[in-house]
C-alpha cells in the first residue's frame, strides 16, 4: 500500500475557472519541489502528496547532532513519521504560487477545502486505539512514548502534563474532602448557628421594598448551618495548603518534564534553529525575517485589549443587574416557595445564566483574540501561539471570574443600609448578604458553574464529533458497484477508502490542542483561586480529569483527523500562565478569607468583645453573643419616603429592625468595631499573603527544577565527548 504524507481536498471546479487555475498553479509548485502527487476523484477531488527523500536528508544533515552523529550527508536514517508530516506541513503552508498566494490564502478562497495528514494503519496506532483510547483504561498508565511516536512531542507533553496534574490533584481532592467532611461534623455544633436558630425575637429588616415582610432571624437556621459548614477554621488551613500545593505541583512538573525531554534528547532543542532549517529546505534563497517591534502597534493592541476587558466587566455587571431584578421579581411572586427562597433562587439562576454567558463569550473572545493577533503580526507560528494564548486566557479569565469576584468581594458591601440603599436606576436595591455571611453564595455559584462545565460541556465535546462521525459513516456507506467499464479500476484503488474515511472525521486546526490546554488551565484556576470558598473543587476536577484524558484520547484517535505533530520540549507559555495563577490563588484565597468569610470578624469578637474577654467567663463559648454584636439597629420611621413600610408581624408592634453591619443606632455612621475589624482584615491579608508567598518561594527553592540524574546525564555526555575528541586528536598527532 502506498504511503502519502498529506491529502489535499478540493471541490470539483469547472474547467478553466479561476479556482481550478489557482489549484493547478499550487500543485505545479509542489511538483517543481519534487513532490509526488496522486489524484482521486469522488464527490470531491483528493490529492495525495508525498515529499522526496532529499528533503528529509537535508533536514537530517542541517539539524544533525555533531556530538553523536557522523559528519556524512549520505549516512542517514529514515525520519519518523511525525517528523515527515511536520516538514511536509511546513512546506505546504509556505509554498507560494506565482500569484503570491499560499495554502492558507487558497483555503480562504475555497480553492482547497481541507489539508490533513492521514491516520495510518500502523502498529503504534492500533496499540493506542486498544490500550489508551478506551473508557475501560481510565485508571491505566498512559503510554507517553507511544503517543509521542504517533502525535509528536507537543501532544505527548500535553498528556504527560495532564496525567501529572491529575495525579497530584488527588492529594488536593483528599484534603478538600477532609475539610468538607470536618465542616459537616460541626453542622449542628457551631455557636453562631445556634444563636441564629434560637433568635426567635430578633426581627430583621425587609429584603425588598414592596411585598417583603419583616422576618425572624431564626427563619434562616438551615442556611446559617450550611454557611458555617463551609466557613470555619479548616478553610484557612486548606487555603494555605492549596497555595503550597500549586507551587509544589509546578516544581515537580518541571522535574518531570526535564526527565521526559532528556529521554527524548530534546532538553536543549532550539526551536528557532529548526524553523530556519525548514525555511532553507523549502527555499534556499529565503532570507530570515528580522525581529521587529512597533510601540504604536503595541499601544493600539493594549487599548483594544482594555476595551474588551471593559466589555467583559460590563457583562458581569449585567449578571449583577439580573440578580437584583430577579430577587425583586421572585419576592413579588404568587408562589410562596419563590418568595421565601428569592435570594437563593436568584443566585442559582444567575449561576446558570453565568454559564451561558461563558459559552457565548468564549466564541466571541476567540474571534477578538485572533483579530488582535493578526494586527500584531507575529513573526513565527510559535510567537503567534504565545500572543494568542495570553490574550484568550486574559479574556476567558474575566469572562469566568468577573461575576465570582463581585460575589466574593462586593456583594453586601456596597448596598448601603436601610433608609439609604444603593439602587440600580433609582429603583432596585442591590443585594444583601445573609447575616451569617456571603460565602455560601460564592459556594453555590462555583458549584453550579463547575458542574455545568464538567457535564454539559464535556458531553457536547464528545457527542458532537461522535454524532457527526456516525452520520458521515451512515451517509458514505459503499453502495453496490455497478459493473461498468472504468468503475472497476477506480473502486479497487486502495487509497480511496482510506482518504475518504479520514476526510469524514472531524476537522482539526493549529489550535485544536490549544483548546484542550485552555480548558484545563481554566479548570486549574477554579481549583486554586477561590478554593477557600469551595473545598470540593479539587475533587470535582480530579473526577473530571480521569474522564478528560480518555475523552481527549478517543477524540484524537477515533473522531478527529490526525493532528499535525509539532516538536516541543516544554508546554510553552502555559507554564508562565500557571505560575501567574499560583500567585493569583494566594491573593484570591487571602481576600476570600479576609473579606468574604466571617473568620476575621469572629476572631476579633472572640479576642476583644466576647464574654471570655470582658467578663472573664470560662464556662461559656467565647462566640456567645456574636450575632447580636454583628447586627445593627434601624428605626422604622427612618425608612425612605417612597418605601412602602411592610406589614407587621402578627401580635408584634415593631419599632426597630436589625440588619447586618456595624453602624451606630443614632446617625448610622460606622462604629469603632467596624474600623477594628477593617484593620484586622487588612492585617490578616498582608500576613497571609506574605506567609503564603514565602512558603511558595521556599518550596520552589527546596524542589530543584532539574533532577540531579538529568544534570549527571549531561555531565557524563560532555565528559565522554571531550575524551573522544582528545583521543582523536592524539591519534592524528601520532599519525
Automatic annotation (TrEMBL):
Membrane topology listed for this record: Multi-pass membrane protein
Pfam families: Anoct_dimer, Anoctamin
Family: Belongs to the anoctamin family.
Gene: Ano9
Domain named Anoctamin dimerisation: residues: 81-144
Keywords assigned: Cell membrane, Glycoprotein, Membrane, Transmembrane, Transmembrane helix
Entries under PANTHER family matching the protein: ANOCTAMIN (PTHR12308), ANOCTAMIN-9 (PTHR12308:SF37)
GO molecular-function terms, A-Z: chloride channel activity; protein dimerization activity
Protein's cellular compartments: Cell membrane; Membrane
Domain Anoctamin transmembrane per the UniProt entry, residue ranges: 147-713
Main location: membrane
GO cellular component, one term: plasma membrane
Name of this chain's protein: Anoctamin
Segments passing through the bilayer: 155-184, 235-253, 300-322, 342-361, 388-411, 521-547, 568-595
Organism (species): Rynchops niger
Amino acid at each position: 500500500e502506498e504511503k502519502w504524507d498529506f491529502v489535499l481536498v478540493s471541490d470539483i471546479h469547472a474547467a478553466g475557472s479561476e479556482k481550478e487555475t489557482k489549484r493547478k498553479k499550487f500543485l505545479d509548485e509542489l511538483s517543481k519541489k519534487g513532490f509526488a502527487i496522486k489524484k482521486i476523484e469522488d464527490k470531491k477531488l483528493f490529492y495525495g502528496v508525498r515529499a522526496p527523500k532529499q528533503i528529509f536528508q537535508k533536514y537530517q544533515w542541517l539539524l544533525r547532532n555533531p556530538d553523536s552523529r557522523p559528519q556524512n550527508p549520505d549516512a542517514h536514517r529514515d525520519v519518523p513519521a511525525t517528523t515527515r508530516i511536520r516538514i511536509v506541513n511546513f512546506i505546504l503552508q509556505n509554498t507560494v504560487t506565482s500569484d503570491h498566494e499560499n495554502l492558507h490564502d487558497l483555503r480562504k478562497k475555497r480553492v482547497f477545502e481541507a489539508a490533513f495528514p492521514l491516520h495510518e494503519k500502523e502498529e503504534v496506532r492500533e496499540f493506542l486505539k486498544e490500550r489508551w483510547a478506551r473508557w475501560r483504561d481510565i485508571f491505566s498508565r498512559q503510554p507517553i512514548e507511544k503517543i509521542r511516536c504517533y502525535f509528536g512531542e507537543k501532544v505527548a507533553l500535553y498528556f504527560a502534563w495532564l496525567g501529572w496534574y491529575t495525579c497530584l490533584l488527588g492529594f488536593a481532592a483528599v484534603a478538600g474532602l477532609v475539610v468538607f467532611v470536618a465542616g459537616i461534623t460541626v453542622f449542628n455544633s457551631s455557636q453562631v448557628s445556634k444563636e441564629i436558630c434560637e433568635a426567635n425575637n430578633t426581627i430583621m429588616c425587609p429584603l425588598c421594598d414592596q411585598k417583603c415582610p419583616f422576618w425572624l432571624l431564626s427563619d434562616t437556621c438551615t442556611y446559617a448551618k450550611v454557611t458555617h459548614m463551609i466557613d470555619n477554621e479548616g478553610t484557612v488551613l486548606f487555603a494555605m495548603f492549596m497555595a503550597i500545593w500549586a507551587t509544589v505541583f509546578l516544581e515537580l512538573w518541571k522535574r518531570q518534564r526535564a526527565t521526559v525531554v532528556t529521554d527524548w534528547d530534546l532538553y536543549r532543542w532550539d526551536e528557532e534553529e529548526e524553523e530556519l532549517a525548514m525555511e532553507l529546505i523549502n527555499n534556499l534563497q529565503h532570507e530570515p525575517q528580522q525581529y521587529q517591534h512597533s510601540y504604536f502597534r503595541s499601544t493600539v493592541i493594549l487599548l483594544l485589549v482594555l476595551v474588551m476587558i471593559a466589555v467583559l466587566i460590563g457583562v458581569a455587571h449585567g449578571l449583577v443587574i439580573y440578580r437584583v431584578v430577579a430577587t425583586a421579581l421572585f419576592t413579588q411572586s404568587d408562589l410562596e416557595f419563590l418568595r421565601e427562597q428569592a435570594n437563593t433562587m436568584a443566585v442559582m439562576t444567575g449561576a446558570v445564566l453565568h454559564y451561558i454567558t461563558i459559552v457565548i463569550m468564549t466564541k466571541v473572545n476567540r474571534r477578538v483574540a485572533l483579530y488582535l493577533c493578526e494586527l500584531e503580526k507575529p513573526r513565527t507560528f510559535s510567537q503567534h501561539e504565545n500572543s494568542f494564548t495570553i490574550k484568550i486566557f486574559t479574556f476567558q479569565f474575566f469572562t469566568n471570574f468577573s461575576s465570582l469576584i463581585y460575589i466574593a468581594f462586593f456583594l453586601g458591601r456596597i448596598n448601603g443600609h436601610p433608609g439609604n440603599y444603593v439602587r440600580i436606576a433609582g429603583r432596585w436595591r442591590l443585594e444583601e448578604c445573609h447575616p451569617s455571611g456571603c460565602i455560601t453564595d460564592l459556594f453555590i455559584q462555583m458549584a453550579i458553574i463547575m458542574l455545568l462545565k464538567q457535564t454539559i460541556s464535556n458531553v457536547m465535546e464528545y457527542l458532537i464529533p461522535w454524532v457527526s462521525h456516525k452520520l458521515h459513516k451512515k451517509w458514505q456507506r459503499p453502495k453496490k458497484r455497478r459493473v461498468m467499464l472504468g468503475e472497476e479500476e477506480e473502486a479497487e484503488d486502495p487509497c480511496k477508502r482510506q482518504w475518504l474515511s479520514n476526510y469524514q472525521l472531524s476537522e482539526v486546526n493549529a489550535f485544536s490542542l490549544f483548546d484542550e490546554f485552555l480548558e484545563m488551565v481554566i479548570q486549574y484556576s477554579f481549583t486554586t483561586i477561590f478554593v477557600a470558598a469551595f473545598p470540593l473543587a479539587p475533587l470535582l476536577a480530579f473526577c473530571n480529569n480521569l474522564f478528560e484524558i480518555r475523552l481527549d484520547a478517543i477524540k484524537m484517535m477515533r473522531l478527529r483527523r490526525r493532528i499535525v505533530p509539532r516538536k516541543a520540549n516544554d508546554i510553552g507559555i502555559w507554564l508562565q500562565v500557571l505560575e501567574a495563577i499560583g500567585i493569583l490563588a494566594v491573593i484570591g484565597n487571602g481576600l476570600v478569607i479576609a473579606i468574604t468569610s466571617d473568620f476575621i470578624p469572629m476572631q476579633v469578637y472572640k479576642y476583644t468583645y466576647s464574654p471570655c474577654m470582658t467578663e472573664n467567663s470560662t464556662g461559656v463559648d467565647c462566640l456567645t453573643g456574636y450575632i447580636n454584636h454583628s447586627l445593627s439597629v434601624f428605626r422604622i420611621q427612618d425608612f425612605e419616603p417612597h418605601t412602602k413600610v411592610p406589614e407587621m408581624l402578627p401580635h408584634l408592634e415593631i419599632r426597630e429592625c436589625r440588619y447586618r453591619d456595624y453602624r451606630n443606632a443614632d446617625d448610622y455612621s460606622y462604629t469603632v468595631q467596624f474600623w477594628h475589624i477593617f484593620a484586622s482584615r487588612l492585617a490578616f491579608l498582608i500576613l497571609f499573603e506574605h506567609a503564603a508567598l514565602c512558603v511558595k518561594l521556599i518550596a520552589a527553592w527546596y524542589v530543584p527544577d532539574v533532577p540531579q540524574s538529568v544534570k549527571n546525564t549531561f555531565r557524563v555526555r560532555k565528559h565522554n565527548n571531550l575524551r573522544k575528541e582528545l583521543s582523536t586528536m592524539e591519534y592524528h598527532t601520532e599519525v
